Here is the input.
Amino acid sequence: MQELSKRLDYLFRSTRGLTLVALVVVSIITAIFGTLSGPMVEWGVRDLTVNGLGMKLLEAEREGRIIMLYHTIAMTILAIEVYFMTEVLPMKRYEQVMINGTITVGYLTAVIFGLLFSYWGHNFTFHGLFLVGQSLVFFAGILLMVALSPWKKEYRLEKDSPYAHTKGGVDMERMAFFVMALAALISASFGAVTGSFWSNGHETFLGEDLIRAAHKTLLQKAIIGHLHIMLTLVAVGITLIVGHWMKFKGILHKIAMPTMVLGIIGTTFGALSVVWLEWAHNIIYVGSTFIMMAALFYVIYAWDMLIKEGTAGIKKPNFFQKMGALLKDPLKFGPGWQMVFMNFTVSGVGIFLAVKLEEIFRVWPHREERITLTGHWHILAALIATIILMYFADLSGLKGKVRQWFGWLLIIMSDIAFASATIFSMKRLFVDEINQQGTVNTLMLLIDLGLGVILIALAMFLIWRLYDLFQAKGYWHKEFSTEKKLSAEAEIIEQKRKLEELNAILKEVSK
Amino acid sequence: MKWTLSLMSLREGRSSRRSNLLIRSRLLRAAALAMTLLILTACAPAPSIGAITPPFIDPGVDPESWAVVSAGEFPYGQHDHMTNVEYDYEIMVTDVTNEQYSRFLNEAIAAGTISVGEVEVEAGEQAWAVEGAYGSYPGDPFDGYKHEEEIKAGDKLYVPTQAEGLRLTEAGGVFSSIPEYANHPMTMVTWFGANAYCEYYDLRLPSEIEWEKAARGTEFASGYGMPFPWGEHIERNNANYYSSSDLFEKMYGKLGNTTPVGFFNGKTYEGYETLNSVSPYGLYDMAGNVWQWTGDDYPDQHYRYMRGGSFYTYEVDLRVWKNNSAGPQYYSPQVGFRCAR
Here is the structure.
């Protein structure tokens, strides 16, 4: 019993344990609900899942089910990012505990009851609890935003700090995290307000189905703005986290962080102002350019640092030595690379789509445009997931060949899958319907192969972590001990500070 | 032999460094070979009409037959908005076939309402010339709304006669259907071409509302209007779609893998058993086989809408409320039509 309690303690009271639980939750959702569409239907796997698990699927409810499924995954990913933030950003211990505790209860409630409601029959108690879960996640967001306040004295930076800061010492990286959290909360409100009109003037829809409607209601526009900016903010979140991990600093940091703050504000305002502004897209273009520039500065810094570190012992490293150093550690090279790759598979496609909308995409049938749009955001979501996995694999202490294999498989196979999906979604540019079958077959195979290998690698990673949990002094134990030690040290510092504060008050009073 | 020995030595824990290297190199080679084979197989060209002759199958459903849809309310769209159609109307039991369309072309050419030759096609910001059958169209009202394109009066392409995928042939100005595809739905036809067919016979394309009512009827099940013409659920052999594995799947490529109109009527063809997938009003192929043009020209946009899904779509697109859209100049091996009156 004591052993079980120790494990539960690790899983629900440490950053790595909490992240591990959330990753397992996402993996289980993906494994089960991924069998309900695509080639799994043809292979008969969907019927096995539906019958085996006793799901109740009605055709008219499909879009609603998918929306709830997306939300449960999104809540979990948000929780993972929040765990990372509360670990790496300085904040009080009680704040960390409150935020992590609230968001954990929130996302688990949302996942369990959201999926029960949408896939196992409409018990409206479940729907209510789904909303309770989401509300808790929202409340955790408020707590996070308060904790991240960059104006607090104790988090101000010294004048000669290598990190971006204002003249008054306000940490601009912290500011970026804070603004991102605030933007996410505002955007969540747009979704929540629209959701509250559900079946009362607002009907369920998928954004890609509505794209060609000449007239959209304000509520529909609010949802379109909401879904776009939420995914963008999740991408911004992981970019900032990875930057912190790679100790991003110096002149590029000093340019990147204010740029990122402006980018977040601009893009969020642009995406949400779609509701009332005809020309909102122009604001989005400007805002997202700022975000992309900040990410570019991070990539330049990170790769330069990897090269410098890797060639530290060489007087005048040649090109190949520099490349060797850059590619030495796939888990540290990967996040930057995936961000660069994102430009080809997501940003580039998005810009091309916007520029050539009338000339090309609106000439295609709606179904083709729908494929391009869904491909576009699925790839972005999956790219974010690979970066999260790289970061967590590093936190999990993967070393040696396992680290190399896991890292490179993640990069190469995901890029094969995403590149193929991008080409698939744009296939009409170079092959007509009559001659597409060979192209389609090849691309589908590459997509399935890439994603399949990633899922196998992820499964093996999680099985290793599960196996480790059964070891008395496994890796989990080491992780937990380290985290407890750090927490205790932080707590001591906090208590000392508090003691000094109290003594100062006593002195003041006794004067 | 060496391979087996290497594996054995590995199993017995006596693997030398050399044999390990050998295994690794062979495993890599095997994996590379498997990958190459997989990719090459996938890249192999699709079978062409020259390689496989489709069977001619007569499902026994008359393409000249009509069904009556009586006036009244029905649940419209995914969210079942009760919508009243105030009049009775008739709609074709099947899609217009290749044979019917070739007859129309010949009659209309003889009557002088259709010409064959080069015609300019406009779409988006582009214009290009296509060899085909064409005729005049009076143009659409233009509202100048965002993203709306003006459909001007003038000659419009009905069918591209030189395009791959057309199941009609032309000799001396006379069109005929490829015999094996005579009773398959007419495809590669633009909205203009579909509209012209219906108008030539004093018919019209059904509106989206008319189409959907004819497809799903007025009944409810599990609290919703019917998602498919035959009921609540779809099986592999209910319709010609991506997962149907029907007899004509292997004909994919140049001429499309449509099934003859009325194919899914409960009969078994060459071992392929179909389910009777007739709609409440007796219509066939209201889900799958080919998308069907509908007649509405909505204000503030130039798109025309299609219903029903096709052999190339997953079952989600076969749900009766799902639509697809394109400019009226669009043609495809997946798109056909039927008329109403």
